[in-house]
Amino acid sequence: MRRDDTSANLLATARTEFLRYGFDGTDVARIARRSGVSPNTFYRCFKGKVDVFIAVYLAWAAEEQRAFERLIAKPGTAAEIVDAVIARHRQHVWFRRSVRRLAHEDTFVRRAVALVRSDLLRTLTTWAGSAADPSAVAAELIQFEQLAVALAEAELDDMTLDDGALRDRLAAMLMRWRVRAIEGPAISA
Q1: In 10 A of CB 86, how many CB atoms?
Q2: How far is 26 from 20, CA to CA, in rounded Å?
């Protein structure tokens, strides 16, 4: 196998492992073995587990952003879109948890998460128009992420509370973003 093929194969295997087991449940030896190479070969392609995790995360996040943009453009009620967002957030729960935890613990993962958020922030700010305050849009983005996670992981159920208020807030953001995306950027005065 050529190095490019080996790297791609390792990356595909690592993706499967990380999405299924998260960061802590995945090890380099298993990635290498399931890719049909030795751990030494793995280390010739990647610096370590965090390096391959970031590569997987960046590709996965790009797919997530495209899915989000398709979801926003798709016809449907606010409730249907909220349900679709929650369903997406329930996918790959161990991976998502790993990203959140590692973003707090590892500088390189934190930078990768910031890069991904910056890309989505550019899209949301473009939808909002040139008069939009990027800091306000970023606050909304972070709130969106937290609400989606809380709903996907049924955190209010744990407190025996109804999740209607969270769903309503998420729906309001999604519908606002949807209108902006469909109508195009606002014109500043």
Answers
A1: 21
A2: 9
Is 15 exposed, middle or buried, given 0-12, 13-18 or 19+ CB atoms closer than 10 A?
Answer: buried
pLDDT, one tens digit per residue, over 3-58 is 678 999 999 999 999 999 999 999 999 999 999 999 999 999 999 999 999 999 99
Give the domain ranges of the chain. Answer: 1-46, 49-183
Q: Say if residues 116 and 181 touch (Cβ distance below 8 Å).
A: no
188: three-class secondary structure by DSSP: coil
Please say whether the beta carbons of 65 and 120 come within 8 A: yes
Q: Give the CATH fold of the 1-46 domain.
A: Arc Repressor Mutant, subunit A (1.10.10)
| Burial class of residue 75 in the structure, from the number of CB atoms within 10 Å of its CB (0-12 exposed, 13-18 middle, 19+ buried) | exposed
Contact 151, 170 (CB under 8 A): yes
Burial letters for 34-71: b for 16+ Cβ neighbours within 10 Å, e otherwise?
ebebeeebbeebbeebbebbbbbbeebbeebeeebeeb
Query: Measured between alpha carbons, how far is 97 from 183 in angstroms, rounded to an integer?
Result: 34
Tens digit of pLDDT for each residue in 64-82? Answer: 999 988 888 888 888 899 9
